[in-house]
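Journal club prep — side note

Before the paper discussion, L.F. wants everyone to see what a predicted structure for a comparable chain looks like in token form. Sequence:
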Amino acid sequence: MVAQLGGQPVLILSDKAQRTYGRDAQRSNILAARIIAEIVKSTLGPRGMDKMLVDSIGDVVVTNDGVTILKEMEVEHPAAKMMVEVAKTQEDEVGDGTTTSVVIAGELLKKAEELLDQDVHPTVIAKGYRMAAEKAEEILNSMAVDIDISDDELLKKVASTAMTGKGAEKAKDYLAELVVKAVKAVAEEMNGEISIDADHIKIEKKVGGGIEDTQLIQGVIIDKERVHPGMPRKVKDAKIALINAPIEIEKTEFDAEIRITDPNQLQAFLDEEERMLRDMVEKVKASGANVLFCQKGIDDLAQHFLAKEGIFAVRRVKKSDMEKLSRATGARIVTSIDDLSSDDLGYAGVVEEVKIGDDEMVFVRECRDPKSVSILIRGGSEHITSEVERAIEDCLGVVPAAIRDKKIVPGGGAPEIEVASKLRDYAKTVGGREQLAIEAFADALEVIPRALAENAGLDPIDMLVDLRSRHEKEGPNYGLNVYKGEAVDMLKEGVVEPLRVKTQAIASASEVAVMILRIDDVIAAKGLSKEEAGGEGGEMGGMGGGMPMM
């Protein structure tokens, strides 16, 4: 970049640096963001299509989960990266609605571009969008329906709505029931608030069988096998010890040399090692434990002694699994064998080693009141099990959200149509140029029912007209039934979503749209740290040689 000073050229940026500014920068950013939205738009709804993602070494992912598609894609453009962040935020916050948030953001930018062409200033559009987003949240709250969290049937409907259109759809009722049971098992009430940590629900997947063979274990699955074939394969009424210490002779921390001058001394040395290991096993036995999970290693000789005592043992169990075992069985994790007592033991009805496919796995089941449970996912291929896993993870986001907020909204595009209609009324009361931005926001929200109709092969204009008239005459719960091709009452149909899915999607989409709109200059920067650059979205190192689209 060159500036003139008294006829003298002044070099500010290097010749290779690229700078885009003004309308060009806005157009480039809006185009990049809209392309991201267009990519995932066809995956929306029960009739949405799937994407096949192939990486450089030929690994394939087949999915219609918005956030998975965007995470796996190699996105280069900084504005496009900001759209990916929207999907990640939605996933972290509520687990579902990632495609919705990205598609709304893309449509908001498309409508903003039309206003920019009419010479409406970006800051005016930004202000209008912010006002519209606040009003949209109010409208959503007013149309939300209170639910009783003891109503398992309604929670199952929330879960099966999140699963509709995914690879797991054919078994969605069965899987929804599993998810609701799992979430209810790990829910804990503290000070009148219900806290649910989905990390306490362990998901294991094994290829083989069908989706219907997926099962909920009232306990924990450990992807390990017992350490010695002489140990029992199955232990009933298991008393479980959890030890975070090696059952082997510890090496000294400093270099030590033992000089042996007599063969008897060597034998004494070996006998002492054996006695120490035998003592460790005796301490485990004395506590009354018949099952042992060890976070560290177990010496071969100790394995032999444990097998002789009939104790079922597993070694090198992950720290996270040890914590889950503790929550499921009530056992305390002990860091020294000397401290192990009967009070530290947990209980499970059955601990057994089961062969699933080619692998042995340890099932700890029939725990009394497990605060950690496991779901074992089965499916005919790696792609199917992965897609079922993604569907279940979505459900593990929406069911806790519905339980925490105790509010749901109808699905099928009903909230978007209602909010759009009320925003148009609100725009008339605002006046000024912001009114145009609020009306554009309302039009943008209708992209959701339009996309649902398009993806189902229906006429989007006819469907929108039908939905609007139903909302005016019969109320806010009418959404699009893509199978019948008509507007129906979504609450009666059982197509419902947690309120938070919609409020978060609209809030995230409007924020990123405003942020992209306010950018009028894209300048190649030297390697900024992530914090300085504002996360991944702002990291523009390497843009000097040009800005590839994707």
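L.F.'s comment for the group: The longest helix spans residues 263-286. Keep this in mind when we get to the figures.
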